[in-house]
Structure formats: structure tokens, C-alpha cells
TrEMBL record, chain A:
This is Small ribosomal subunit protein bS6m. One of its GO terms (biological process) is translation. Belongs to the bacterial ribosomal protein bS6 family. GO terms for molecular function: small ribosomal subunit rRNA binding; structural constituent of ribosome. It comes from the Eukaryota. It comes from Cyprinodon variegatus. One of its GO terms (cellular component) is mitochondrial small ribosomal subunit.
TrEMBL record, chain B:
Keywords: Mitochondrion, Ribonucleoprotein, Ribosomal protein, Transit peptide. SUPFAM superfamilies: Ribosomal protein S18 (SSF46911). This is Small ribosomal subunit protein bS18m. Its main location: mitochondrion. The keyword Oxidoreductase does not apply. Belongs to the bacterial ribosomal protein bS18 family.
Amino acid sequence: MPRYELALILKAMQRPETAAALRRTVETLMERGAVVRDLENLGERLLPYKMTKHNQRHSRGTYFLVDFYAAPSILDGLLDHLHRDVDVVRPAVLKKDEQGPKSSCCANVAKLAS
Amino acid sequence: MLCLRGLRRIKAAAFLQRNSAHRSLSSAEALQDEPLLKAEGPSKEPQRGCVLCSVTVDFKNIQLLSQFISPHTGRIYGRHITGLCGQKQREVSKAIKKAHSLGFMPVTHKHPQFMKDPRICGIKHVD
């Protein structure tokens, strides 16, 4: 199964509510047959610009990163579900690159120099 | 007629001889040229890579990406200013636009936290 990354921005809430929202999101993922690999908290910070979502203007948010394996067919439904969740400000699913060292022109030049 | 045939034979033989001679000469030349071709001139400098040669560009690493944008307007600098190679310039540009749309990096300005970072780009600001 291909590997995806969910860059999630949640509303700035108290700790138990944030935990509940995260739990809800991960359970949704697992219900749809995804295998959650890693969950990172990038902290609560001021958003780079004010975002309007669900008739609310957000200036602060909590950033999370969820690494998971899933079938490509579930992504549409998942994004739809996340957009409808009131606590989520901005969801984004990205594909994660599996390849390690890429052959770039600069890398080749560096090798020649060394 | 006979002399013509004879002439043709002689010509053919000469041609064959010339060919073999040519072949032997070319192989000898090739043997001589190999070390000459491999040796580079003493004035040839080793190629320098760009600043991000061995650095993976990620949209989450906004501190790195902020080094390639204008502090006043947040515009992405061109290749003639950043000095990056084609591939890395494209990667940085794509990562900055991704960070903008996903809500990781400000669009119209540089994050004040990163204003004091070292300047990689060859542009002088009127401070």
C-alpha cells in the first residue's frame, strides 16, 4: 500500500478536546482500513495567516502530522470527512516519497569533486 | 579488357592494403590518445555544486525555505539571485508554494522569527 502523510491543522483547544479530536481522526483512518505508522505533534503556534473555516476565524492552531499506509481509494472519502469535522481547520493528504538518495546533478558533481 | 580487369584487381588490392593500413594506424592512434584524452588540463577547476547539494528540501522546513524569499514581500527569489541549480530551485519553489497552501508558511511576508537568519541569496537589502 502506498504511504501517505496527513498534515492536519486543528483548532486551538484545550488538551482533552484536542486529544478527542485526534482520537476521532485516527479512528476514522483505521475504520477505512489505513495503518497508522506515526503521529507527530508540531506544536500549537500562531497560524501564518488568518483562516476562516466553519464560520470561525482562526488565528492559532495545533499542527499534527500523521504517517499512514492506505489504499488510494479511501482518500476522497477521508478528505471529505475531515473537511466536515468542525475541529479541523485545514486537512491535507500528501503522498510520501519512498525513494532514498535521489540521483541529482548536484550530487553527481559532489561525487566527482570528492 | 584484360588490362582493365587487371587494373581493377590492382586497385582493389591497393584499396584493401590502404584499408588495413588505415585500420592499423587508427588503432595505434587510439592507443596513444587514451591517456591524452583522460588527462584534464591543469587549469580545470572541479565543478562546484549549489548550496543545497546534499540537503533534502521539505515543505515542513519553513526556516530553510524562508531563506529564499524576500523579507518584505515574501516573493520567491529567482535562480540568478539564489544561485541554486535547476533541480533544487524547482524543488524549493514547489515546497514554498506547498507550504503556503497547507498553512505552514506566511505568503506576503517572511516570518519575523527567521529575519535574523544568515543570508544565502546574493541580494543586498536596504535596511
